[in-house]
Amino acid sequence: MNFNDLEIYQMIFETKSINQAANKLQYTQSNLSARLQQLEQELDTNLFIRTNNGVSPTANGQLLYQFAKQTLDQFQQLKSAMITTKPRLLISELLLNYLIMTQKEFDVNHYEITIKETCEFQQALAQTIYQHVATFNPIKFKGYDLMSEASIETCWIAGANTQLAASLPIAVNHDTQCPLRKLTLDLLSETTNVIEIDSLENILQLVKQEKVSAMLPTYLLTDSKLVACDSRRWQIKYYHYQYHY
């Protein structure tokens, strides 16, 4: 039994399907079936009952799942505690573009960068220690000290033909805690046509194609394909935390 076996077993248990587990882990179904059979032989017990709808864990299967989950969680915590050659930086897509690409605040060559949606930050911080965190939401995890706070200026942005903007749907990020999404929804009426897009980059492409308009940072206006819809501006706060051992 090894960590890979435990990861495979955990996925089979949670999906209740060898086929679904194989798809998620990008293995062949026959490979996972063989690994499961080998695991059952090693432990000398049946871990699942095979059915037409998938698999159902036995009592011993339930025990192994608890062991696998606990072991894998502890292994992840151990990896997180290990000192890496580069400090870890946790950051959102929007702040990555602004702080790294535009402000040059972090050198990409000096950091191990993890990009997460804002709604995923709490879980990420619970699992891994990051030496630096750039976030739109204040965090209260032990060991993290607030180093600075600042703001990004935003406005309504459309493609080059601003005359179309009023008739276009408004795009928001599907990340429920995205600050641009929150600001957009606060400013719009319930009857406004709003569509969710899965990333900032995809929103930008649709705005440039004049298919949507959106609330976006004003630093993007350096792109000739983007223009401000009006003179109004809003400020969105962000925070830089550093971890101290």
Helix content: 25-40%
- Tally of DSSP helical segments: 8
CATH domain fold name of the largest domain: D-Maltodextrin-Binding Protein, domain 2
- As for the number of domains, it is 3
Strand content: 25-35%
| CATH architecture designation of the largest domain | 3-Layer(aba) Sandwich
Rounded to an integer in angstroms, the radius of gyration calculated over CA atoms is 23 Å
**Based on helices, strands and strand pairing, what is the structural class?**
alpha/beta
What's the CATH class label of the largest domain? Alpha Beta
Shape: globular
Number of strand elements: 11
Low-confidence stretches: none
The largest β sheet comes out as:
9 strands, mixed
Query: How would you describe the oligomerization state of the chains in this entry?
Result: single chain
For the record, give the distance between the C-alpha atoms at the N and C termini, rounded to a whole number.
34 Å
Secondary-structure element string: HHHEEHEHEHEEEHEHEEE
State the CATH superfamily name of the largest domain: Periplasmic binding protein-like II
Domain HTH lysR-type: 1-58
Family: Belongs to the LysR transcriptional regulatory family.
Organism: Bombilactobacillus folatiphilus
Pfam family, one: HTH_1
